[in-house]
Amino acid sequence: MILFAVAVFPELAQPELSQPELPPDALLIQEGTASFYGRRFHMRKTSSGEIFHMDSLTAAHKTLPFGTMVKVSRVDNGDFVWVRINDRLPRYSKRIIDLSRKAATNLELLEDGITKVRIEVQNLEELNRLIEYYKDGKPNSLRLRPVDLGISIEKKEIDKSVSNNF
């Protein structure tokens, strides 16, 4: 019955709702220096218990939960790679992330050894998961803040002509 009414009287249809675009830095959680590790640690156990493979797209981070997928982007040229956190950096490290040799190769980092990077999460759900994970104990080095999104409503023109055919 409702479908019939909407088909006959389109003005009764609900306006289409769409999600607005995210601010450019909404998913950014950290900026700093990245390095890489490889041969010396190849086939050794990581902090998560996995065996490290230098040809996998993985990384070590000081505090992010194991299994977290992050986008690591070079600040200087915008190149990026997605990696999974499976190891820990020492707390005293000046780096924010240590990439596997494969991830470093994808970022053309092998010659330089270190570079400035941005770390982002995949989506708002992942950002909210991290906020919940850390609750009140968030490390100061991480930038975790909720993102509130408004709802955009499609604008419709209003017919301003008045009909006198009553």
Q: Termini distance?
A: 26 Å
Percent of residues in beta strands? 25-35%
Compute the number of helices: 3
Provide the CATH architecture of the domain at 28-134.
Beta Barrel
CATH superfamily (homologous) name of the domain at 28-134: RlpA-like domain
Low-confidence stretches: 1-6, 14-19
The whole-number mean of residue pLDDT values reads: 81
How much helix, percentage-wise, in residues? 10-25%
One letter per element, helices H and strands E, the order comes to: HEEEEEEHEHE
Major sheet, described briefly? 6 strands, mixed, barrel
CATH topology tier name of the domain at 28-134: Barwin-like endoglucanases
The CATH class of the domain at 28-134 is identified as Mainly Beta
Taking all Cα atoms into account, the compactness measure Rg is 24 Å
* Structural classification: alpha+beta
Q: What is the overall silhouette?
A: elongated
Order of strands side by side in the largest beta sheet? 2-6-3-5-4-7
Number of E-type strands: 8
Descriptive notes:
It is a single chain. The protein is an alpha+beta fold. It has a domain at 28-134: Barwin-like endoglucanases (Beta Barrel). It is built from three helices and eight strands; from the N terminus they run H-E-E-E-E-E-E-H-E-H-E. The protein has helices at 2-8, 101-106, 124-134, and strands spanning 17-18, 28-37, 58-61, 69-74, 80-88, 97-100, 115-121, 152-153. The strands form two sheets. The protein has a six-stranded mixed β-barrel with strand order 2-6-3-5-4-7. Strands 1-8 form a two-stranded antiparallel sheet. The chain is elongated and about 85 Å long.
